[in-house]
# Entry
Amino acid sequence: MQRTSFSDFACSVAKTLDVVGEWWTPLILRDVFLGVTKFDLIQQDLGIPRKVLAERLSVLVDNGVLSRHAYRDGRTRHEYHLTEKGNDFITALIAMMNWGDRWLSEPNGPPLQVLHSGCGGKVEAQLVCRSCGERVAHNDLRTVSGPGARDTKGTAVVSGKASHSMIDVD
Amino acid sequence: MQRTSFSDFACSVAKTLDVVGEWWTPLILRDVFLGVTKFDLIQQDLGIPRKVLAERLSVLVDNGVLSRHAYRDGRTRHEYHLTEKGNDFITALIAMMNWGDRWLSEPNGPPLQVLHSGCGGKVEAQLVCRSCGERVAHNDLRTVSGPGARDTKGTAVVSGKASHSMIDVD
DNA sequence: CGAGTCGAGTTCCTTTAAGAGACCTATCTC
DNA sequence: GAGATAGGTCTCTTAAAGGAACTCGACTCG
# Structure
């Protein structure tokens, strides 16, 4: 199937997908986040083919998203944990979960809830403005090309083809 | 390759991936969000095989993420736009973009910036507590099984296998 | 002490989606 | 009436996904 690599797109979404965008990968990260850290447990939980799981775990370790720890050393027994890089991906994972909860929900409501351990309230991914601190709605967004813009694939907007509110800024 | 459908997982991440998790799909949504709304422009921008693009667009329209509008009618000329459901996915898309910006960045910085059209500040996806309104770090999260929890695939945690801070709550 | 089990993969085979590119059709444009 | 253009469809090849069996070195049960 020789899947196209997104790594040379001048687009951070593409680069992200190149690392964690493959089939099964976000679900593996979800399991590790929730504390399912061993090969066989992940395999049983997801029903993923063992070959695919082995390969995905290697890719994630190679990319620094997961770390592989031997336990009961001597033998090859491993646990997988999120690195700092992996933990930072949780925001995206929860954003996807929220969307599924809202638009594709189970009849009885969300299967899993994420809570703030401080106050016990429900946690949600939101768009927030770093200047004024306000929550931002999708129709209050404006996109501009950043300093790293290049003229390659995934840059239609940057090269001015967009009908959208694009302004060049560098 | 007969890809496993995630639709019957009791997990909103899996359900989300079932709709928008395929190779290319998030990039198509990114382009539509940025104002690249026509078949040929998306195809040229991404370099995606035409057959794959046609199929992905159909899936997205069928699932209510995109809407297909005829323009200059008489001929079949279409534009694709985000529906409310599609717009709501932007949060997840920006979360992925942020992660790519932070961990896989271009030498010169982010290729694209998302700004608050009100104040012009940079917009970012964050985890926020709906009770206390505070920003939540990944190590301040606690997960509990929600009302829609079922005992199928993708529920290792819910059925108590997790080493994590899981508490049953229904 | 030998048989069975378990974790963590690896190997092999079949099916099928992705990728590349040619082809099609209806309308404008010159 | 000869391109050009938009929006696809068709065909072919290759490689990834899915399924299942096999490996290999500890343990552990009787």
Remarks:
- The longest helix of chain B spans residues 90-103.
- Residues 1-3, 23-24, 48-52, 55, 72, 74-77 of chain B lie near DNA strand C (CB under 10 Å from a C1').
- Chain B touches chain A through 109 residues (CB under 8 Å).
